[in-house]
C-alpha cells in the first residue's frame, strides 16, 4: 500500500518526511521517481501534471494539498475516484489572520499613513471611522469564510456573507443565490472573496460587480480583498475601477497568472497590495497529519471526510 506525492510545483521531500512519520506502515512514493503503479492506493495532489494519475488501477482516493480543488479539475484525465479537500484549523486560522489584518488596514487607512510617512507629512484631517461604521461582505461562506466572518463580527464590523445556501452565523447576515447578489453588493464597503473557482464563479470579480458595491459608506470608495482564486478576477477590470475611483483599494493574494508577471501594472499601482499567494499556506506538519487521519479513517472502514462534489466543482 503506497501514498503517492504528486506535486507539479514545490518540494515533495518535507511531505515525504511527515507522511513517513504519520503513516509508518505505508510506503511513500514521489511523482517522477520509480514506483509500482499497482501499489498506489492514495495520492496527494497539488497541480499534478495532467494525466499523471490516470494509470493507477488501484487508486482509492485523491487528496488536495490545500483547501482549493480547482487544480484537480484542470486534468481531463482525472480518475473517477473520491476526492477530498483540506479542512484544517491551521489553514483556517492563517486565512482569518490575513483577512482580518487587511480589513483593519483598510479601516485604519494604513496605506495613506505609510505614504505620508515616506513623504514626511504629519496630517490627520479626517475623523477615523470605527469598525461598526464599515459593512464587510464575504463571498464564499465555507469553513474559511465563516470563520473570518465570525472574527470580523466580533471586532464590530457589520458583516454579511453571500453563498449558494443560507448560513446561520450569529452577527452575520446571510445572502444566498444569484438573485441576492446585487443587494449584498449594494450594502458592502469592503468586499472579501473566498469563493471556490468553478465555471460559475470564473471572472465573477469584474467591472459590473465592482460598480455594484456601496456608494454611501464611511470610506472614500469600496475596497476589494481577494484571497480565494486568481481565476475569480478580471485584473484589467480591477485596475480600471481603481483608476476611475470606483474602488479605493485592492488587496490581492491570487492572480490570473502566477507568479504575477513582472509587466503587470498591479505591482506598481499605488492602491494595490500584492502578496504571493501566501494568505494561507499548506504546512506539511498540519496538512500531513490531516491527510493521514483521513487515510486511517478509510482504512478502518469509515467515510471520506470533506469529500469533493464533482458536480459542484468543490
Describe the structure.
The relative contact order is 0.14. This protein has 314 residues and is α/β, with parallel strands linked by helices. The protein has a 7-stranded parallel β-sheet with strand order 8-7-6-9-10-11-12. A 5-stranded parallel β-sheet has the order 2-1-3-4-5, with helices on one face. It starts with a strand and ends in a 15-residue tail after the last helix. It has helices at 13-22, 70-73, 89-107, 110-119, 143-154, 181-186, 207-211, 235-243, 284-299, and strands at 2-7, 27-30, 40-46, 61-64, 83-84, 135-139, 158-163, 172-176, 190-193, 223-226, 249-252, 272-274. Helix 1 packs across helix 9 (284-299) and helix 3 packs across helix 5. The chain is elongated. It has 2 domains: 2-86 and 282-299, 3-Layer(aba) Sandwich (Rossmann fold); 89-274, 3-Layer(aba) Sandwich (Rossmann fold), CATH 3.40.50.720. Helix 1 links the parallel strand 1 and strand 2 (27-30). It has 9 helices and 12 strands. Helix content is 29%, strand content 17%.
**Topology as H/E string?**
EHEEEHEHHEHEEHEHEHEEH
Q: CATH topology of the largest domain, which one? A: Rossmann fold
Total domain count = 2
Shape: elongated
Strand order in the largest sheet: 8-7-6-9-10-11-12
Largest sheet: 7 strands, parallel
Helix content: 25-40%
Mean pLDDT: 96
Instruction: Report how far apart the termini are.
Output: 27 Å
Please, what is the CATH homologous superfamily of the largest domain?
A: NAD(P)-binding Rossmann-like Domain
Quote the beta fraction. 15-25%
Model regions low in confidence, pLDDT < 50 over at least 5 residues: none
Helical segment count? 9
User: Which CATH top level class of the largest domain fits?
Assistant: Alpha Beta
The second-level CATH architecture of the largest domain is 3-Layer(aba) Sandwich
Class based on secondary structure composition and strand pairing: alpha/beta
Computed Rg: 21 Å
Beta strands, count: 12
Amino acid at each position: 500500500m503506497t501514498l503517492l506525492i504528486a506535486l507539479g510545483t514545490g518540494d515533495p521531500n518535507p511531505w515525504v518526511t511527515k507522511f513517513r512519520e504519520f503513516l509508518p506502515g505505508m510506503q511513500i512514493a514521489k511523482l517522477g521517481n520509480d514506483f509500482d503503479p499497482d501499489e498506489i492506493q492514495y495520492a496527494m495532489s497539488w497541480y499534478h501534471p495532467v494525466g499523471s494519475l490516470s494509470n493507477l488501477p488501484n487508486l482509492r482516493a485523491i487528496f488536495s494539498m490545500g483547501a482549493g480543488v480547482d487544480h484537480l479539475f484542470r486534468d481531463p484525465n482525472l480518475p473517477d475516484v473520491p476526492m477530498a479537500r483540506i479542512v484544517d484549523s491551521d489553514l483556517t486560522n492563517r486565512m482569518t489572520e490575513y483577512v482580518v489584518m487587511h480589513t483593519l488596514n483598510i479601516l485604519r487607512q494604513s496605506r495613506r499613513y505609510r505614504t505620508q510617512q515616506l513623504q514626511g507629512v504629519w496630517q490627520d484631517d479626517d475623523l477615523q471611522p470605527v469598525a461598526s461604521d464599515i459593512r464587510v461582505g464575504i463571498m464564499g461562506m465555507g469553513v474559511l469564510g465563516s470563520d473570518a466572518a465570525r472574527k470580523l463580527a466580533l471586532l464590530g464590523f457589520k458583516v454579511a456573507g453571500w453563498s449558494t445556501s443560507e448560513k446561520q452565523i450569529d452577527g452575520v447576515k446571510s445572502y444566498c443565490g444569484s438573485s441576492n447578489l446585487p443587494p449584498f453588493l449594494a450594502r458592502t464597503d469592503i468586499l472579501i472573496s473566498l469563493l471556490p473557482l468553478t465555471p460559475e464563479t470564473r471572472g465573477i470579480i469584474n467591472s459590473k460587480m465592482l460598480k455594484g458595491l456601496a456608494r454611501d459608506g464611511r470610506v472614500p470608495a469600496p475596497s476589494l480583498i481577494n484571497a480565494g482564486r486568481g481565476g475569480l478576477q478580471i485584473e484589467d477590470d480591477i485596475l480600471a475601477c481603481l483608476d476611475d475611483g470606483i474602488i479605493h483599494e485592492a488587496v490581492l493574494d491570487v492572480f490570473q497568472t502566477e507568479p504575477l508577471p513582472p509587466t503587470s501594472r498591479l505591482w506598481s499601482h499605488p492602491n494595490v497590495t500584492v502578496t504571493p499567494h501566501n494568505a494561507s499556506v499548506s504546512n506539511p506538519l498540519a496538512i500531513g497529519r490531516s491527510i493521514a487521519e483521513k487515510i486511517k479513517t478509510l482504512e478502518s472502514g469509515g467515510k471520506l471526510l470533506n469529500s469533493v462534489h464533482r458536480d459542484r466543482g468543490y
